[in-house]
Structures are given as C-alpha cells and as structure tokens.
Amino acid sequence: MFDYSMAEIGNIVVMQGFSGISLFSVLLLMALGLAVIFGQMGVINMAHGEFMALGAYTTVLFSQVAVSYDIVSYYFIFAIVAAFIVAFIVGYLVEYGLIRHLYKRPLDTLLATWGLSLIMQQTFRSIFGAKEVSATLPDWLLGSFQPTPDIDIPINGVFVLVLAAVVTVGVYIFMFRSRWGLRMRATVQNRIMAGAVGINTKKVDRVTFALGCGIAGVAGAAFTTIASTGPTTGSLYIVDSFMVVVFGGAASLLGTIASAFGIAQAQSILQFFMTSSMGKVATLMVIVGILMMRPEGLFASKLRK
Amino acid sequence: MTVTMSKILGGREGAIGLAVLALLILVILPLSLDLFRLGLVGKYTTYAFVAVSLVLLWGNGGILSLGQGIFFGLGGYLMAMFLKLEASDPISTKIQTTPGIPDFMDWNQLTALPWFWEPFNSLPFTILAILTIPALFAFIIGFAMFKRRVGGVYFAIITQAIALILSILIVGQQGYTGGVNGITDLKTMLGWDIRNDGAKYMLYYVNALLLIGSILLSRYILSSKFGMLLLAMRDKEERVRFSGYDVSNFKIFIFCVSALISAVGGAMFTLQVGFMSPSFVGIVPSIEMVIFAAVGGRMSLIGAVYGTLLVNFGKTMFSETYPELWLFLMGSLFIAVVMFFPNGLAGVWDKYAKRVGFIRRIMEGKGKADNTSADSNTQGAKA
C-alpha cells in the first residue's frame, strides 16, 4: 500500500472505484429484484441468481441470432427487454406453481427455491453446456474513454451504470407512483383489508414476484457486458445480493442503493490492496459485524422478527 | 425403567426405533457390506450428526441455520490439525525446506509453525478444542443475534454468509489451512495407523456409538422441560417471552448444543475419511445437510439418520451413473419434501406404516397407550 505515490493512489482509487461501479450496478440490479421480492413479500428467493443467469443466457441467445443476421449494433436494447420478459414469465409460473403454496412458511420457501436453483442450473448446463459463454457486444459498448492519460474508464461500465439508474428510477415509480405499486404496498401492509377493498391480492403477489424476477433478468443482461456467463454464475452473486438487501434494510429502496454502493466499493478497493479472497472476506466480515450490532440494517427503523 | 431412562429412550416406540437403528448400523450393515461400502456408510453417518443437530435446532427450535457446515468443518479441521502435525514429523518431512511442519506450509514458504497450530501437538487439547471451540463460536454468533432478537430468515442468511466467509478464508489462507485441497495425507493417531482395515472398523463403531449417544443426548434435552419450551418458542415465541422466560438464552443454548454435535461429526469425518477440505464448510454442504434432515423428518432424530443415509446413497448411485440427473433429482427432492412431505420420512411412517395392524401392535405394546412422551414430537409437528 505504501509503494505508490499520491497521484498513483488517486488514479488507483478512481479506476478501482470505477470497476467497483460495474459491480455496484450488477449488485444493485440483483438487489432491486430481491428488495421487491424479499423486502415487500418476505419471500426468500434463493433462485434469484439463476433468474439473473436466465436473463444473461437470453441475451447471449439474442447476440447469436444478431450475429447471424448481422444486426449486432441494435440488438442489445431488445435483448434487455427480452431478458426482462423471459425472467418475468418464468417467475410468474414459479410463483403460481411453487411460491404461493409457501407464503406462510418462509424458511421452507428458502429450501424449495434452493431446489429450484439446482434444477435451473442443471437446465442451463444441459442446454448451453458447462462452459461459460459470452455475448458478442456491439461496437459502441466496447472500448474506454480517458479523461486523463492515467485513467481508463470502460464504456460498458458506464452503460451498466446508466441501466441500473434507469431501472432504479423505474422501480421507484412503479412502487411509489403507480396504481400497481399502491396495490402492492397495500397488500403488504394489510392483506385482509386490501382484499376487502377489492384488490386481487393473489394477482398482486404473482406480479410482484414476477417483477422481481424480471429485474434479475435485466441484471443478467447487464452482466453479459462485463463478464461471461456460466451455469453457476448466479449462485456466485446470491449471498452478496442478500447481504445488500439485509444490510440496507429490507424494505428501503434508498438503503438498498446505499448498501450496494458501499459493499461493491469496499470489495473492489480492498481487493486491489489485499488478495481478492481476503478483500471479499474483509467486506463480508464487516457487514456481518455491523448486522450483528444493528440487525435492522442501515435504513430501517422497524424491529426485525 | 426409571423415569429418566424412559425419557431418554422416548417410551416404547422410541426405544424400538432406536434399537432398530442400532441393529442396522451396528450389526446388519457391517455384516452385509464390504469395507469400501461400509466406509461410505461411516462417512454418511458423520453427516447424520449434523442432521440430528438440525432436528434439535430447526425442527424443534424453529431456528434454521444454514451454517452447520461451519461447525462440522471446524470440528473436522481441528482434528485434522492434530493428525497433520503427527504426520509431519521431522523424519518423514526431511526433504522439505523446513522439516517438521506440514507439507502445505512448506509449499507456501512458511518457515515455522504458526502459533495457533502449536497446541495441536497434544491430543487432549485437540479433543478439548473440538468440544469447545465450535460451541464457543456458536455462542458468540448466537449471543450477538438472539439477544437482539434476530431470528428466522435473517438468522439463516447471516449464518450462510458466515459459512461463505469461513470457506473463502480457508481457501485463501493456503499457508495456514492447506487451501482448496484441505488438509490431506493423515496417517496416524498417537502412532495408531488409522488407514488399515482394523482401524477402519474400529472408527466406524466409535462413530456409530457416538451417533447413538448424540441421539440419546438430544432425546434427553427434548424430553425435558427445556424441550417443551423449545417447541413452545418455535410456535409462539412472544407468549413464551411474556411468560417470563428469556427466550434468547434458550436459543443460544440449543445453537451451542447443535454446534457441538456437528463438530463431533466433523472430527469423526476426518478420522474416517483421512482428510478435511473447505468443500465441507461452505454454503452448499451446509444447505445439503438441511435437506438430509428434511428428508428424514425435521422432527425426528432417528428419521434424520435414515434421511442422511438415503439421500447420500442416492447421490452416490446417481452421480456414478447419471451425473446430470442427480441435480435435477436433488432439486426436485428439495421442492417435493417442502411441498408434500414437510415431516419427511418420519411423517410418512407415522401416517401410513403405523396404520398397519402388526406394526401398531409392536409399537404400542398390547394396546397400551404408552406413547405420550414420544408423541409430543409428532404432535408438535401437526400443531
């Protein structure tokens, strides 16, 4: 840590900080989906990472089609939408077939969705093979720009950040400024009364869950721009995403953003100065430590049960 | 039978169940399987310790720990440290740069034994460590969390994160822990070769008896007033608290007991299998152990053992012949157990097998209704 000059350290912090921002964007997208599912409905979806992988594989498929028709420049926007739709539909079906039977048993949901994640992983492996695959990115996503000669900021990182910002705003509008969000919050607050005033609570559950999965799909599409996708890609992010949601305070959107930022930056900067595994260990230990002192997370005042 | 004896055995039904299990693992399996297969059973029964601990913690206490691999792994590693030090005497390691330290330390340019390895030259200290360190660690986690009333899914997620931290730490600190390969090439315990056939039988029996001992201990705990409180806490925590009990102390205690039982299983694993690696510490093994307990029946101590054996034999069979199908099967098992058989094999047994006339007569003993204490478990499950 002491072999660098001040200017070098400044550059390292900017560049590692930026690589942290790519991680932050993916974590934030993952955590937004979880914040909707876990924060609002209290459902533990251990298969959330696999929904992300689903979105990523959808994007890869789109890129293969795009390459064969030579339309690589445009496909990505459609791929994001498709990733959302595919993950949304699968999430809808999963809610219908599995989750809705288990709302009263949150710990059992955890086990059932873990089973689901195993099945999805093996499905990916059977269809796409055990090797990692990556999408062919359009030219405008490649390369980097250099504000000063020593600083190198990759464009895909900027793109993912913008995407995460757009989705965050979208989720905010959906949850707090739309009729759907109103119904959703009403159902979470008081299911019986919500039903009494004519809200179809079962439908709300299904759409909420599917929406969370759809956002995970978008996270997957974003993920393809910074790394390649394998069958177990999702499972690498699942603990981190849960940590983000719990650390931020389960029901708080602002908390989710803040904690995703903090965790991603801490991990990325620590990984530069320590080994990569120790950086991760240090980050997770700090989070677990803080959660033990302050179990309700950063941005929530409600006592946890 | 004295009252305590009858409590531990769980009445007539419990005693018969335990006798059948003991007959199976102490007599039938050793006589009918070759040493290789028996070794597998021995390995699986070490997982059964964890499954039994989860019946206490999860089935009866309602606390789902996704970090039992932590304690299993700690127990296993503590044992492995002792065995490794014994295997790394200066004579057999004389080709190393620094003779007398474990080989992986030498590979990682360590020139002296780290201080926390030193005490593990002594077997009594190692055994003491296996019995205290995991339980102490559980106490710290439990104290920090239960005193602040963190429970349910938060506890599950945080224990999972701790399991992840520990496994990354072990993999990352190669020089001190053997890294991803774990601690291998364990040979003798106090000069006694643990790899020959006689030792394998011996260890198998020690392990089986310890498992039965753990079941008896768990029965004793569950049949006491504490066991009743545990069930009450699981179902209506607030009411127990308002009745004047300090709920968090009970939770910490049962978490420590479960850590202790898991650690014993881990230590026996190392002794029988001859190595320990981080693949038995992290998230995946921890959650797989939950499914062993769930398949056997989360309320049934004996069912948990059968569940462990069954799932593992299934895993061995399928992953030998159809490795691709295994994950599908495992995934479906998770879902099916949760959706259709929440009480696992034990639930199926209670529901169907006991209706068969002669089984009921054996279990109830000439129609005498003596199953009150044993049934408190299953009653709780239905409530």
From TrEMBL, chain A:
InterPro entries: ABC_transp_permease (IPR001851), ABC_UrtB_bac (IPR017779), BCAA_transport_permease (IPR052157)
Main location class: membrane
Keyword set includes Cell membrane: yes
Protein's UniProt name: Urea ABC transporter permease subunit UrtB
Pfam families: BPD_transp_2
Top-level division of the source organism's lineage: Bacteria
Family: Belongs to the binding-protein-dependent transport system permease family. LivHM subfamily.
GO cellular component: plasma membrane
Any single GO BP term: amino acid transport
Record keywords: Amino-acid transport, Cell membrane, Membrane, Transmembrane, Transmembrane helix, Transport
Compartments reported by the entry: Cell membrane
Transmembrane segments: 12-39, 51-69, 75-94, 153-175, 209-230, 242-263, 270-293
Gene: urtB
Coiled coil: none
Membrane topology: Multi-pass membrane protein
Automatic annotation (TrEMBL), chain B:
Localization annotation: Cell membrane
Membrane topology: Multi-pass membrane protein
Matching CDD domains: TM_PBP1_LivM_like
GO molecular function: branched-chain amino acid transmembrane transporter activity
GO annotation, cellular component aspect: plasma membrane
Keywords linked to the UniProt accession: Cell membrane, Membrane, Transmembrane, Transmembrane helix
Transmembrane segments: 15-36, 48-74, 123-146, 153-172, 202-231, 252-271, 291-313, 325-345
Name assigned to this protein: Urea ABC transporter permease subunit UrtC
Recorded name of the encoding gene: urtC
